[in-house]
Amino acid sequence: EMKEAVEYAHERNVKVYLTVNTMPRENEYPILKKYFSDIKEIPFDALIIADVGVLSLAKEYLPHVDIHISTQANSVSSYACKE
Question: 29-38 vs 52-61: helix axis angle to the nearest 10?
Fold first, then answer.
């Protein structure tokens, strides 16, 4: 449904930003990788990301999408600390 919603918005010249403000723990990264893989074909205008580890993962899985840092930015995992 997200793809259809983004297309609907774009037909009306409305930008769509996907907010990914999750602060995943180590064991949640496989789920996040699958999520990013599942949405890679959806033409979001940008992602809003709060965690540096998530930002790194988004750049890997969605290199074509602009990224904005959330005002809720933080680090809670080793993925975030590696950057």
Answer: 40
pLDDT tens for 7-50 read 999 999 999 999 998 888 889 999 999 999 999 999 999 999 99
Q: Which segments within the chain are labelled E, that is strand?
A: 17-20, 46-51, 66-74
Instruction: State the DSSP H helix or E strand holding residue 49, giving kind and residue range, or none if neither.
Output: strand 46-51
The answer to whether residues 54 and 22 touch, using CB atoms and an 8 Å cutoff, is yes
DSSP 69: E
Q: Are 16 and 10 in contact (CB under 8 A)?
A: yes
- CA 53 – CA 2 distance, rounded (Å): 24
